[in-house]
Amino acid sequence: MKTIDIRPLTREAFAPFGEVLETEGAHSFPINAGKCVRYHDLARIETTGEKARPMISLLRGEPYSLPLELGMVERHPLGSQAFIPLSEHPFLVVVAEETPDGPGEPIAFKTAPGQGVNIGRNVWHGILTPLEGVSDFAVVDRAGEGVNLEEYFYETPFLIR
Fold first, then answer.
1. Is the pTM here over 0.85, yes or no?
2. Quick one: 2-160 is in which CATH superfamily?
3. Which reaction is this enzyme known to catalyze (predicted)?
């Protein structure tokens, strides 16, 4: 089994797969008579299809323990998928580049408090993997007709540590 070391999540490292959602370094401006700051346009929400629309959901995830065996990744060919944490617990973000034979070797990132991600349309990624405690998330993704889930099972699983 091949081992994958977890990296810290940064905008630069995650750019090929989507956007990191965080306030640090984001374009911002005051609103509501200066009583609020808007961190503006942090991610591109993608949907395809005539009857497609963005939707918002809430998820509550049980924590996973490390090291973690990864045998499957998935992608959503019809829309992006944003995960916005509503708790301070970190979570694992696993992504993989597309190759001629399917998803390549996974890359694992660990979020810092306050970081979320928007995974681009058709990007291979792991499942939601909270760490250190039960975690709530707001999720922005695609609703509409069509099959928007494809799974890939690796011949040999990876160990993420």
1. yes
2. Ureidoglycolate hydrolase (2.60.120.480)
3. (S)-ureidoglycolate = urea + glyoxylate
